[in-house]
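Ticket #4471: structure export looks truncated?
Reporter: QA, pipeline team
Priority: medium

Steps to reproduce: submit the single chain below to the structure queue and open the exported record.
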Amino acid sequence: MIPKKIERKLITALMIGALIPSGASAAEESDVEVFDFEAPTEVEAEVNEDSLRYLLLVDTFETAERIPTKRLQTPAEVVVITSDEIDANHYQSVDEALSHVNGMVAATVINGNARVLTLVDGRRTFIYPPMKMIERIEIVKGGGSALYGSDAVGGVVNIITKRGDHNETTVDINTGSWHRHTYEVTNQGNDGRLGWFIDAGIGKSRPYNYRGNNDPTRSDQSSDYDSKYAAVRLDHRFDDRNSLTFDINHRSSASGRYDIDPLLYPQSGVYNQVALTYNFKEGTSTPGFLRYFNNYSSTVDEYNKRGSARLQGADYQNGWELGQHRLIVGFEWHQSADVSDYIDFANTKRKVNNQAYYIQDTITMGDKWTVVPGTRLDHNGQFGSQWSPKVAANYSPDDQTKFFASWGRVYQAPSPLSLYSRFWFTRAFNGVPYLMEVYQGDANLKPETGHTETIGVEHDFSDKVNVTMSLFNANVGNYLDRFDRVDSYDNAVYPYTFDTATYYFVNSVKDKQRGANLVYRQKIDDHWSYNLGYAYTHREHDLGDEQAQSHYRVPRNSYSASIRYQNGPWKATLHGMAGSGSGGQHYFEDNFAMWNFNISCDVSDWTTIYAKAINFTNQNYSYFGRNFNIPGRLFQFGLDCRF
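Actual output as written to the record:
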């Protein structure tokens, strides 16, 4: 249990913050001053107004410290995918957008680490919103244990959705390889106090194949999909400082309908998410919120096994500006529940509660130094209480440079699935079973513990050139993994050998990742810009005396390059990714080099046509960092109309 003395003090601080009225007079609200940065220098003004757009940079972040911070005063490497970039490239998914970020493998791996926390508007999520609803995606590389918990060892991905701010309806239709079709309609508007953004769509695709694949058994047999989705965001503004936001997101999907195995059944899933958020002190340096959210999913897998999951919670945050200090405090209550007809949760509760309290202080020391100490107290219903402290520092010797460093503690409790589950299914080929897979939990698993560090530098050489470099390290003990043990029974089903593969959830001895990121951005002129990136990742995985599957493998060396062109109605991007030294069992090739190309033209004020060529070098590599590979060559054509 949480120590009563500590709990009383934290709750008292939260209650005091909630009682501060948003309409206090100027004398009373000295701790909630309007967030207004100092006037930028001539170089900053040029960068902020023009070159940032070409260099794919922004000047203010929300995610790194959960309050607005300036780019060169934020003690972390932060990358932002803006709505302009999303629109110019017509990204079809969050994973496609994130795969263009140097050092990332889709949304699951940052800096070689699979412990990545993905949020939507700051809250935990099961599914992503539609791309047209996304205002920006902020990626914070490195640990964020004080604010977000230790499932953010690799970093945080925060998807920020749009508020309806003008009246507009859009229709987007596209078609392409693998019989892929998408039909999407959005409507947004604002009547002064009420803003709305509504998105609905349908997407379909046949299964895709890999490069040189003339054998249908080498296609991803579950990569086809038939999905329907709808999302609504409503914002009611009470005044300049207070508003209420309601979000609902629904998606239904099915796959595996074209599977060659007659014994397997199609997979399907229904996902529903709702959230209600009261925002207060908006527009100040320490905005706050009070939120309730409820995420629910119901799935049927390819073996006709049914399962459901629910995550609901309440989040609260408030803050004050006290001289050189910007202090924020917060509370989270989350409850997770998993139910399935093929999982045996023996001797355990199916619901797990987690309470968390966090406090952080952003201390400005003169014009050059910013120090951010913080700590988080998590109380898990199964493993008790644990502190996760963090400290970060930022030094800006001038208006174009920052040096940053951070350290955070890692603590991650095992999930009920890894502790108590036992489920199995049989794989078959041409109607004949050949493998039974058994997944076995272990009630004696220990929490993961460790630490993570990041240091780096960012410098604007001019209003047209920016360079960012960082080094990272993560050291996790008792790393949760899966060991693979196979017992064979010859000729159990003639003419095949029937095997039983048992996967045991266990704690590995340790897992280490270290490496470096380097990104160079340059604006050539008013039409052309480019960026080059390199990421090095080295992983040491101590498996003890047994051999485990490592489900998140990334190339040791990753390279990225993007060339962007914009002239009047024309926009085009050529993006390349390459990797070497992967050496993983889930890669068909240790080395790969692939290119994507996007081009669009605004043929009128209300019509845009676009074309995409994804992976037109037809390479194979692990899209999600594990055993899912990217599709083969894909062409796509689309029409976007606005009314």
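Status: closed, not a bug. The export was complete when the record was re-opened. Leaving a note from the reviewer for reference: Residues 4-19 form the longest helix (16 residues).
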